[in-house]
């Protein structure tokens, strides 16, 4: 992927350090996400991914380092940074008695986005929610819940979107539909940070992958470049079940190497 050097990064993280007491959860992490790029943030549970996302959202204050969202410093311009950010969580809880349409109208109003009938119809159609627009949110499927969550997160068309394990628990069809939507967001110039435990998803949707372990980024490359780097590595080949190194083999090999 190439990017326009005149276009500022959607996200820039430099020297990020986060501690909880004496425990260092994030240790001098840095990365950049450009327009039209999806960066996969991968790591075992407890690796520091959630702390990194929380800092980007402005929910926790790092000990040191800088975070800029669409050029705005989180520490100095939190409101402006957040206004340029959309967040989809692994699981969202909407008011179960409101319909899908009512939820979209409600959040459009909160974001100051046009919420007339034509505008809402367009949003519902864009996220394949037209057929369930009158259904109560407590009665729609998991895939439809995630579509609604993504619609709400991106109503204000933010230049940066954080997707935290968005396809967990979804069936293959729903997962592929969400991948397609992520692809359309990229094509529109959105920068995306995606966390996932699915190596298939990471390979299918991410331009680059940052592997986090013990609070550090231990690899930051395209999925194919990572595979090429380790395709002849004896340790990685020993992990392979097919005789050919996959992204999952690389991930397990790299993160297992840091275990005590």
Query: Which term fits the overall shape?
Result: globular
- The structural class is alpha/beta
Strand order, sheet with most strands: 6-7-8-3-9-10
Instruction: Give the low-confidence spans.
Output: none
Quaternary form: single chain
Task: Please trace the helix and strand order, writing H or E for each element.
Answer: EEEHEEHEHHHEHEHEEHHH
DSSP summary: helix tally: 10
Mean pLDDT: 91
**Would you report the number of β strands?**
10
The main sheet comes to: 6 strands, mixed
In helices, the fraction of residues equals: 25-40%
Distance between the termini: 36 Å
How much of the residues is beta strand, in percent? 15-25%
- Rounded to an integer, what's the Rg over CA atoms? 19 Å
